[in-house]
Design a protein that fits this description.
Layout (H helix, E strand, L loop, with lengths): L1 H11 L10 E9 L2 H7 L15 H4 L4 E3 L11 E14 L7 E4 L11 E12 L7 E8 L2 E11 L2 E7 L1
Antiparallel strand pairs: 1-3, 2-5, 3-4, 3-5, 6-7, 7-8
Length: about 160
């Protein structure tokens, strides 16, 4: 979608015009939702008595867009089961008042929800621990409306697909 916005800006925006929102931030938060992690991954360890854990490799790379319970955000010692992403936008330039819109889990639900990246190996954290990482996003060459996301976190790399 960003390609379409850039194209429209370059082709149609009058000199001195503005594009809104004028500011956007993307945030990542640690999630410790044991129930959701079990439903999506541990579930495959025993499916009606069958060990189908090989299916985890197919499920894990799929980023999931869903509403996150804000109570599952990691704010105390816990085991981080996932990383979630969301965005905030600001309408401020040439506006009579600043307007902020957030898709964060702590805000009112929107149809954008949050994007959840399940961790294959959950990370135990205690007070003062710092999770260091890097996220890389690029378009999927086979499907230009799909993204390939690589998340490097604490010396572990996982790649996800987002439709």
């Amino acid at each position: 979608m960003l390609d379409s916005v850039i194209y429209a800006k370059q082709k149609y925006l009058a000199e001195g015009g503005s594009v809104y929102p004028d500011t956007c931030t993307i945030s990542l938060v640690a999630v410790s939702d044991t129930k959701a992690h079990a439903e999506k991954l541990a579930f495959w360890d025993d499916v009606y008595g069958f060990n189908m854990s090989c299916m985890k490799k197919a499920v894990l790379p799929e980023a999931v867009v869903e509403v996150i319970n804000p109570d599952t955000l990691a704010s105390q010692p816990c085991v981080v089961k996932a990383i979630a992403g969301y965005f905030d936008v600001v309408f401020e330039r040439n506006c009579s008042s600043r307007v902020v819109f957030s898709t964060g889990p702590q805000c009112m639900k929107t149809h954008w929800k949050q994007t959840v990246f399940l961790l294959e190996k959950p990370i135990a954290v205690t007070v003062g621990d710092v999770l260091k990482g890097k996220i890389t996003v690029h378009k999927n060459r086979k499907d230009p409306r799909s993204l390939i996301i690589t998340l490097m976190l604490n010396n572990t790399t996982q790649t996800y697909s987002l439709q």
